[in-house]
Every structure is written in C-alpha cells, then in structure tokens.
Amino acid sequence: MGTTLSQLQEVPVAGGRKGRPNYNEEFKRRLAAAACEPGVSVSKLAREHGINANMLFTWRRRYRTEQCQEAAVLLPVTVERPSSPPGPMPMSPGAAVCEPTPPHGAIEIRLGRAVIRIEGAVDASTLRTVLDRLTP
Q1: GO annotations under biological process (predicted)?
Q2: Residue 36 belongs to what domain range?
Q3: How many domains does the chain have?
C-alpha cells in the first residue's frame, strides 16, 4: 500500500551547510502526518522521499506526542467553600465493627520434588528458622 504525496516530492532543505540536511518543520510535520495514515509503510514512505526510515519514525513519534498534547483540554474548575463547617462523617452500621484483616502471604520453596509451603503471616524469625533447616 504505497502512499506518494506529490506535494512532498521535493525535499526542502534549510541552511546551506554540507553534510546533514536540515529539513524544515512543515516538511517534517506533513511527512509525519502521512506516516500516521492507516496502511502506510513508513519505510517505503521514507525511501520515496530519500530520507532514513529511523528519522521518519522519530518525526512520527514526535508528531503523535504533539497531537496527544494538543488533544488534552483542561476544563475550568471552581472551588467553593461550604457554608457551614464540615461535621463528623456519618458511620454506616457495619463500619463500627471493622476488624483489621490479618496479613496473608505464602512462601513456597521447591527443592527437587519436595515442596515447602508456609501460608499466613510469615514473620522474619519463622522464615529464618525454615531457611536454617534447609542448609546442611
């Protein structure tokens, strides 16, 4: 699926120094936008315009980042102070009987065909005991 852009056939080069060409921003933007089209081969598009494919991938990545930043729209926000000071939060009937759940964990050690599994709250001393017993 080749895409050729007749308006992009000439490669605009800014500056007169020899070596690396300096492409103008409009050329980069148009070529990057063309590279974002569905079904376009970025490598083929770069080859058609005489530039390195990695350079076009970089331009496309930068173009997409710019497009995402432009798409993010901030909405105005107003903060209103309440007319009366906030009181205590109402509690639901089940909230008064809230017990902390015990920490749950598991340690599983496989040695050959043997499996050692410790479930529940494993503290450092229990783990140290198990590891000490494993070493000869």
Answers
A1: DNA transposition
A2: 6-71
A3: 2
Are 106 and 63 within one domain?
A: no
pLDDT score of 130 more than 80: no
pLDDT tens digit sequence for 108-127: 787 777 777 777 777 788 77
Full 3-state SS string of 38-76: CCCCHHHHHHHCCCCHHHHHHHHHHHHHHHHHHHCCCCC
State pLDDT tens for residues 68-117.
777 666 778 787 777 766 666 666 655 555 566 666 777 778 777 777 77
Residues 6+ apart with CB under 8 A from 53: 42, 43, 46, 47
- 108 lies in the same domain as 67: no
The Cα–Cα gap between 65 and 50 comes to: 24
Within a domain: 23: yes
